[in-house]
Write a structure and sequence with these properties.
about 160 residues, mainly alpha, Arc Repressor Mutant, subunit A, globular
């Protein structure tokens, strides 16, 4: 096997490159559709998370969508301004805020979710169900591996900063 066809040396054959390529193509296709609703891909992810999780907290949305807290805060402000979501402070903890969809936001979130499902169907066309199940398990495990690595690095940085 020559160097160009070895998966461990050919960058275009690496898992991260392939995952990024598939994601980038999907995002490019979905971006145009989401724009008709005045949102981007991140906004679509937020709306779907709120659709599927009643009265979800901002920190939970950040974790589920992998959107930085400051970016998410700005996005939520815009979604609220556009009438898609409403914020509610918890009566027993004034620092905690939950996010819910408005009636209009629910309609938009449901339509956006259909767009996402359509793109997923396109992505998975021709792949047997058993392979899709394996893919989901493998991707979940990869996310766990990367998440553990990120947490370990964050713990090391926090420990080194504590010593300063």
């Amino acid at each position: 096997m020559d160097r160009a066809t070895r998966p461990d040396t050919d960058f275009q054959q690496t898992i991260p490159f392939t995952m990024h390529r598939v994601t980038a193509m999907t995002v490019a296709n979905a971006t145009e559709e989401f724009a008709t609703y005045g949102i981007n891909v991140q906004g679509a992810r937020v709306l779907i998370v709120v659709l599927q999780n009643k009265d979800v907290r901002i920190g939970e949305i950040a974790e589920m969508t992998c959107i930085e807290f400051s970016t998410l805060s700005h996005m939520l402000r815009r979604l609220e301004h556009d009438g898609l979501i409403k914020r509610t402070r918890l009566p027993n903890d004034n620092r905690s805020v939950t996010i819910a969809l408005t009636r209009y936001g629910r309609r938009i979130a449901e339509e956006v979710h259909e767009i996402v499902k359509s793109h997923q169907s396109t992505m998975l066309a021709g792949i047997p169900r058993a392979d899709i199940a394996v893919l989901r398990r493998v991707l979940s495990r990869m996310a766990e591996n990367v998440g553990a690595s990120v947490r370990a690095k964050a713990d090391c940085v926090a420990a080194s900063n504590a010593g300063k």
